[in-house]
Write a structure and sequence with these properties.
By secondary structure, the chain is an alpha/beta fold. The protein contains 12 helices and 17 strands.
Length: about 375
Amino acid sequence: MHTDTSPTILITGGAGFIGSHLATELLQHGYGVRILDNLTPRVHGPERHRPNHLDPRAKVIVGDIRDPHRLLEALDGVDAVIHLAAVVGERSSMYRIEKYMSVNTTGTAVLLEALLDHPIKRLIVASSSAVYGEGLYCSYNGTVYPKIRRSPDRVARGDWEPRSPDGEVIYPLPTPETKEASPLSVYAISKYDQEEMCRLIGELYGIPTTILRLFNVYGPHQGYTSPYSGMLTEYASRLLQDLPVRLFEDGYQQRDFVSVYDAVRAFRLALESPGAARRTFNIGSGRPYTFRTVADLLATITRRQRLSPEVTGTGRIGDIRHCTADISRAREILGYDPKVTLEAGLLDLVAWVEAEIAQRQKVPAPLEVPKSSRLPV
């Protein structure tokens, strides 16, 4: 229970998918929570209402991260800041360039300037695995390739796998934090800008700063178009409406899907771990899965195995082939141990998606998911 002496945490962008879950996690562990969020209509609807699922104990200040006056109000009396506010999504960033750089890069700069006059005990920044571009690869003979880009010509021919400079097929490895950044989208560039600015200002001005590179976060309350793992919400929605899942390329791209419950626990651990300051951590499940595997699991959970995936055989601008997380550093320093299996996480996601569909269609109660699959908030 929060008391007058408990730390108060400001979550920028805290009314969003991850932020709302994070508010619950922190409140349940005795923190006070304040949120600065512009309640963008794209996410929260034209009325810009506070989300119903957001814990009522969290105080919300409606404002833009680029508004220094709102920031000063939000920062008054807080002990730490978790910076989630950002425009997210790699593909849309390639044609909304000014928007992404303004909110993500300039917004972070405005926050950092405000912190110069409002000292805090910890700054935690939500970054993205997108800063890596493609993940780490190795060849059959053991040569490691830390910086690989797929040839557009080969991708156009349906030759999906990355190759070495000699044309040799190479194989994905878990990607550590030491891998060189190689952002392949404006979004990824803006997230790396956030990292670099926060590291520099944190070091120069004595603000203990931690960077969390989130991999593909999924869970309830995630929008269908969310760039984190909104495709999982879309997959579940399509299957529940007796439509096949659509897979880009051949469906064998590998990703690291991490439950939002594990992700928000990582933020709390970073807040509480003395060794987290001045460090960067991957936050994922530590397990690679293909989109085909996820589609098959969802088909089983929704009892739609008869609906075979629709494989498009086409790629999308800005997509990478494989990137999964090496989480050994987070395990060692933060004590981070992912607890939600993909199967349990998808059961929880399907239950939420079906309830959402039922509410929209005003139909009776949704399919009952076994109680053992329900995840604690």
